């Protein structure tokens, strides 16, 4: 209730009257004290807050009345100097009263101008206390600020006399503003004025907005540079709550006063770009930050500044470009920022920003990548995202490895941020960095991509994503790191830990892990599988070795300490090889051994034997918790426990796979195949993981899956570890043995042998009876034969009961006529039906003599006899085969001999050995290559005697370039491996048998060559013929002498070769004594070849004193017999000079083809890879034709001994090579020196090589104008343009219409030839005996009557020219091949007479050395 001034009750007074009375009372006081002042001013302040402005209808009159009533108060304030009072309480109440007066009397000023400065000082003083939000006066000061803001009182400060106060207030507001001002104000009002709701809008207005409103009013009234500086300084502040509110305030001012501030701010920023030094304030160094902050709130303000920023991106200064790039990236990284609406200015900046991704400086490109990441993460769906992603993806292929690394990091961060929508091409390109050429990039790729893959697995598990092939490429690419041999971090020892610990999330369920693995296997190739198998095999190896080591630790006894220590050291070495640092791991194993901690051994034993990954993880965690992190071997034991645990795959993974395969019928075909492949990989490495899933596996077998054979193999491996009822599995396996494929049948028998216990062994007898019935009834004969063969390997007793029946059936197959009614023909195999049956039958018999268990007591003679007959020919001694595919049967027989040599080498005769070796020169290149591949595999695995390696020497002379290259690689690898093995024996002091030396193959090679029907006749003195025939011997000698294994070959092989040749010279042929002279001739040629080919001087040879020769090949005669036969041997022996000419001929052919090869390369001839000349090593055999070509396949052309090439025909290797040599010789030169070829034809008729022998023979190229019917009946020989050889024949008819002659060649071939276009000679003086000899030689040697050095002339009859020719040839030879030069430089060489070797013979029981031969197929006449 309002009362009168006297305090007595009366008529109510208005607030204005009360204020007037209070003002009068205050005015009457002469010297008021503080208490009275505070009391009166508080009443005045409270009353003033109740006074409103007059209504707008009569506002002017109302303001006059109010001004009259409030005049006493204003006078009292001036009178007592309250505007300058320094007391806080009084000053606050005065300020409240003044602010209320401004509100009530607005727009009129309550005081004169002379008092405004004092009033503004009051305002500043109270505003400065606003930072104290806990003060009891905070709400009053906030009220003052609100009143000043509403009344726009501060505009009065912009006059000249108060401008400094305006600037002070402007800065004051930036310093005192707080983020929590609004909340503090609300809390105060909630406590004290909850019921005050007269002005809700005023109550809700925040202090921050009042400050902002005051400052906006001031800027709108007058915006000078001081205000701009204050705004910009606070705009770039960072840090605490004060600065963050100030930044927000500055940003709000810029956003609200854009038009007023734009000219000033843009002018300042332009100065910073153009002339920074002219600016005196430190703000110039923060202009980039200013631009960024303005771009956030008012990007339109910067339209005139952005071109300057674009120019900075193009400057030559790298640091300036990087700073500008960082600023640009931040501008475009603002979320929900649409800059395209501001014209092309920002678009130009964006285009230049993208160009910086390909800047010439790597640092700039790396900065661009970081900025690009910010841009994409801020707006992954914005219009700028696609361009940024493209630029980032391109940098993954940058030429600088640091840039590629940064691009990889950015790409992986982007994938983790927006995995569901990231471009698939970016995933693939990032995964490719795992194959980067720089190790540092690959390391970072491995780290980042494993993080990405873990996140991907988590999202798939949560249902946010589906399995994606592009992400599944990551594990596949990680596996490829195993092939990197240059970096230890990528060895399988480290990648095992990646697969087990880092690739998948730790808590990811087994089922979901297997889903990812199956998807990986769906896209894996054989290289990925090889790497995975490498990791798993190393894990298996560690587990096995650790089991042995743990067993040794438990059973170690004091009475055998040394033996235990030796074994433990061996185990430690093997175990440490499975760790990243092998030497450190070995030291840790030694320390673990010294600890003898039984608890550790027990925990490791549990981990090694555990099959479940879940249980293994529990055991591992408990074990590591027990030892604690302070244990000296804690880190090592953590790695060891990880490696020996089933953490990559386990029995749970196998069970999960089998449940998926057996539980759903709608499984994707591709995923089902991948699941089975994964299952097979796991079971092949860890067959024990099948334990617990036997029923599901049986169900899978019953489905007759295409992978049933591999599943059966896995079953046979897992048999020792699983517990099954054999009766459940046997019906399925029996059905496979009877009705499956051959491979499935093989696996099924193996599984039966593994699963059948001791009580079930009789099952093989039952199975044999069923198989025999199936065979006799003609059902699935190939499968049945395969099953029988495998049964013979697993149960010798059961097979013996039916052996006679099987043998009888197979022998009938070999004697049966070829028929197409037995089986459908398989066109893909190139083998007819009858030949297939013969091959299957051979395999059945051979496998029965190679049992896995038990001993065979049957005789093998019958099998060896049929193999010998098969190897001899296609239709020989009752064995019948078709003409086209009989070679396949012979190849199967040769392979059978190789397999039998493992256990039955004592029974293999020299003839069978020889026939097997000669398969290496079969006319069918496919057959030869197949045979050599099998031979190389068996030799590499040490499954057969090393003497079979001499077969490679024959294929070295093959006209097929691929066969030559393969054979050279095979024989070189064999020699190197055998040499290293011999050295290992010497280092271990175990002694070395000379028969283990790779050079010992010469013993068997010479014997095979001596029994070759193509051996030159006794009276042949043509060095070219001998050089060609001895090509295999020369080739293998050159390989032996060219491979230098740390000097071992040159030091020991050369004396050993000499000893072999001397021993053969003192021996006889044990098979056919008539072939003994041939052995000696070959020994002499080999001895001379080693002397000439070996260019290294051996000053102190260590030749062995004795050499062991196989008694089945060589025999020792008595001294008397040697003396009796010495004379005949001397007569049959070749002259030393002739032997040297043979070797020189071989060398000259090598040199000739080497020079021609170089000329071809220099001339850049357009010759296909299949038409290139042969390597120098094989040049001596370039003209050798393949015998037996008339029995080739029907699909091949019938190859005659006279090889001619017509238009449109394919040119073979040897024909092209010879034709290339021939092209160097003009035809006129051939006419002048035609007797050169005559010399090679008649060389077999006389031992004389003089020109007088040729003078009695009319030998010239005939004039083509003087022939026709006149030469009918004459003997001529034609030059083949294919191989440069002359082929003899008889002219039988002449056709005048076609101007062609019918010529019957001596080998039976008939051709119609136009002699006008041919080079030919007459043989008019040739006797009948000479014709027969010539025919036989042509038939035996084929194209070996060629003239490789056709440029020779008959000028050799002149002694002077002979010497000249000899000197020229010596000059052409290399130094090491020139005998004269070699003899003059070497000094004392190792020769045949250098030392005496004792020839010692041994029985077959000691050496297991036999041989066999294969006769060549004769040409049909």
Would you give an account of this structure?
This protein has 1421 residues and is an all-alpha fold. Helix content is 59%, strand content 3%. The chain contains 63 helices and 9 strands. The strands form 3 sheets. Strands 7-6-5-4-8 form a 5-stranded antiparallel β-sheet. A two-stranded antiparallel sheet has the order 1-3. The longest helix is centred in the middle third of the chain and has 30 residues, at 526-555. Residues 1-10, 182-205, 820-828, 988-992, 1045-1050, 1097-1101, 1153-1266 and 1324-1421 have low confidence and may be disordered.
Distinctive features:
single chain, mainly alpha, 1421 residues, disordered N terminus, 9 strands, disordered C terminus, two-stranded antiparallel ribbon, five-stranded antiparallel sheet, 63 helices
Mean pLDDT: 75
For the largest sheet, list the strands in their spatial order: 7-6-5-4-8
Poorly predicted regions: 1-10, 182-205, 820-828, 988-992, 1045-1050, 1097-1101, 1153-1266, 1324-1421
Distance between the termini: 151 Å
Task: Calculate Rg over CA atoms.
Answer: 52 Å
Tally of DSSP β-strands: 9
- The proportion of strand residues reads under 5%
Structural class: mainly alpha
